[in-house]
Amino acid sequence: MKLTFDEKLAENYKNVSQKVRVLTEQWVDNSVFCPNCGHLNIDKYPNNQPVADFYCSNCREDYELKSKQNAIGTKIVDGAYRTMLERLTSSNNPNFFLLNYDLANLEVINFLVIPKHFFVPTIIEKRKPLVPTARRAGWIGCNIVLKSIH
User: Fold this and answer.
1) Cα(11)–Cα(129) distance, rounded to whole angstroms?
2) pLDDT tens, 11-39?
3) In this structure, is the dihedral angle defined by the CA atoms of residues 6, 100, 16 and 25, taken in order, positive or negative?
4) For the domain 7-148, what is the CATH code?
5) Contact in structure between 106 and 84 (CB atoms under 8 Å)
6) For residues 50 and 54, what is the distance between their CA atoms, to the nearest angstrom?
7) Helix or strand (DSSP H, E) at 66
8) What totals of helices (H) and strands (E) does the chain contain, helices first?
9) Are 87 and 76 in contact (CB under 8 A)?
10) Residue closest to 101 by CA, chosen among 88, 114, 112
11) What is the mean pLDDT of the chain?
């Protein structure tokens, strides 16, 4: 399995987080099979799908990808709190992919799969609302608390 990213894919991006998103999503799209049914490839949803990045066309499982540089740690910063809770309590809550990468070497360090029965509301931590002077004042994000997974 190739554990390096294709640097050419991100040449047109200036923002580091956008580059990382493109590189990691492409790596998963090209390298990962469905952990649920073993189907040889999974498909990428269009961007901005709420709490889902990939799906298996064979078994219809959804997967949310989060990428983190260097050490994994105990928390992963995520998006909107309410959207996350709605998705995790729905009938089709996703499984969770955690990709740990080394940006200097453009390579995957670790790739973890957390099955959906562990990716539940109890591991989601509500963050404080953004301050009134923020561009998205009042918006509430969340963290995925990895140490809460049982």
Assistant:
1) 34
2) 899 899 899 999 999 999 999 999 999 99
3) positive
4) 3.40.210.30
5) no
6) 11
7) strand 62-69
8) 2, 8
9) no
10) 112
11) 93
